[in-house]
Amino acid sequence: MGKEKKMKKRTICVICLIFAIFLVWFIRVYSLNREYKKRDEVPVIDYAAGEWAVYENEYAYGNYMEDYQVCVTGYQFYETDEYLKSREISKEDLSFSLGERVCLVDLRVKGTGSDSSNGLYLGEIWLYGTDYYAGQNPDLFALENPNMTDGAAGILATDGEECDVTLVYNIYRRDFTWYNWNHMDRMGWKLFLTAFPRQKNIVLQ
User: What is the DSSP string of 82-99?
Assistant: First the structure.
């Protein structure tokens, strides 16, 4: 009887020791992950539509951008067929693929520096949400911005100079669940402007 108690006690001690080791390991791993995540994170700054978002030498699409501000003045989702009909063009007139919907974002750009050689590239500003991204359609960008030089997607503006452009995004049905596709007006959408050392976005909705 005493031997059985001793074995039982030893078993309990071994289990407690294993549990303690696991607990220490878990706490250590959790702490390290939290520390690494903290090091990797960058501050996120969200601007509202109608508010000027400032480029302050942050990394954006291959360059460190500065001397510009941008402001969203409006946006609208369209069924692609409806949009093309309103512009009196067909899919055969376009060289780039189209999604089932498009999103038009009206953007005002303002120069804030004296060096007119520093341009702002707009062609790779992405539209994104929690688990989806939308890229621009160059054909429709050219259609909406007829004053832009053929194939250009950049702006040159000196201090105080402003201009208006419209970005056009492809929205593909395959990228969304049934619910999100049918409730797109309730989803969160942002323009992704910069990545580092600060991530800057403009919140559309």
Answer: HHHHHHT--GGG-SS---
